[in-house]
């Protein structure tokens, strides 16, 4: 399979990027290039003043959120590297090489925020707590399982899933803090990184849908996404003390379910459709409904709404 896939095939005859052979991939690369930023653009001086307004509970919450995000960033970078090393298409490699640089910038920016608010002991304690959670091991095993798969299609679905699911609950809590008008530097960092992850997610989906010959069943896609959702729900339930900021677990899990449905729809849209006159929207809705039935864990997660209490 690897010898036949255009993404994985050797391109020894292409010494320069021009002429571009895959304009849609190159356009995606230019889009990510246009959004490039550095940690030096983050100003947290006002955050240090806002910090004085936060009580001990909210400070504890932020320590946990930042620790959880940094823990996830380490896993996501390793996932990107493993997949990038398999791809030989020059246009795609340009995107993924820059994505790795941006992921390093994400880690630097969040590390800068964490180091500004918490001393070394507080940082070490939160990372130790994260390592003790069963969900941490489950996430690492999930990444290992799907990146070691013999199917490159499964690898791409895993990359899109990781960018869509892991850390999104943490992002949602920072969005809540942003609405409260607190910690503007951290919230600006969140906005930049959220935008980047959306670009990374969409690119993985684009490669999967438009540049892959290998077939993969909807059931397998459901499995990959469903496992990631279950792991992220564990983090929400077992680690994030949402009660400290009066945020509802149900709101966060509904948001997570919505993101998972949106990803599934994006991945399967236009794949395996042989005739242009097929009612695509109806097919997508049916598959998304099937996905919900297969992966729901309780009756609360059966109804997904774009409008939450976040």
UniProtKB/TrEMBL annotation:
Entry GO MF terms: ribonucleoside-diphosphate reductase activity, thioredoxin disulfide as acceptor
InterPro entries: Ferritin-like_SF (IPR009078), RNR-like (IPR012348), RNR_small (IPR033909), RNR_small_fam (IPR000358)
Highest classification ranks of the organism: Bacteria, Pseudomonadati, Bacteroidota, Flavobacteriia, Flavobacteriales
Biological source species: Salegentibacter agarivorans
Cofactor(s) this protein cannot do without: Fe cation
Family: Belongs to the ribonucleoside diphosphate reductase small chain family.
UniProt feature coiled coil, ranges: none
Protein name: ribonucleoside-diphosphate reductase
EC number(s) per entry: 1.17.4.1
GO BP term (any one): deoxyribonucleotide biosynthetic process
SUPFAM superfamilies, per the entry: Ferritin-like
């Amino acid at each position: 399979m690897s010898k036949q896939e255009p993404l994985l095939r050797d391109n020894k005859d292409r010494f320069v990027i021009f002429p571009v052979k895959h304009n849609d991939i190159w356009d995606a690369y230019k889009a990510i290039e246009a959004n490039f930023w550095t940690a030096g653009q983050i100003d947290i001086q006002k955050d240090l003043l806002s910090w004085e307004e936060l009580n001990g509970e909210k400070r504890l919450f932020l320590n946990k959120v930042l620790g959880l995000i940094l823990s996830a960033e380490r896993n996501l970078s390793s996932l990107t590297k493993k997949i990038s090393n398999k791809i030989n298409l020059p246009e795609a490699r340009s995107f993924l090489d820059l994505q790795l640089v941006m992921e390093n910038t994400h880690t630097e920016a969040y590390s800068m925020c964490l180091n500004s608010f918490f001393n070394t002991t507080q940082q070490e304690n939160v990372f130790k707590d994260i390592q003790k959670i069963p969900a941490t091991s489950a996430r690492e095993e999930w990444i290992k399982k799907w990146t070691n798969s013999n199917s490159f299609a499964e690898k791409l679905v895993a990359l899109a899933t990781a960018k869509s699911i892991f850390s999104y609950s943490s992002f949602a809590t920072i969005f809540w803090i942003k609405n409260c008008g607190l910690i503007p530097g951290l919230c600006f960092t969140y906005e930049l990184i959220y935008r980047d992850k959306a670009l990374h997610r969409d690119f993985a989906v684009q490669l999967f849908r438009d540049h892959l010959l290998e077939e993969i069943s909807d059931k397998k896609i459901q499995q990959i996404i469903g496992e990631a959702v279950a792991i992220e729900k564990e983090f929400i339930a077992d680690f994030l003390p949402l009660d400290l900021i009066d945020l509802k677990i149900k709101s966060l899990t509904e948001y997570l379910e919505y993101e998972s449905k949106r990803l599934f729809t994006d991945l399967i849209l236009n794949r395996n459709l042989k005739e242009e006159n097929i009612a695509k929207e109806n097919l997508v809705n049916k598959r998304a409904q099937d996905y919900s039935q297969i992966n729901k864990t309780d009756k609360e997660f059966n109804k997904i709404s774009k409008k939450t209490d976040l």
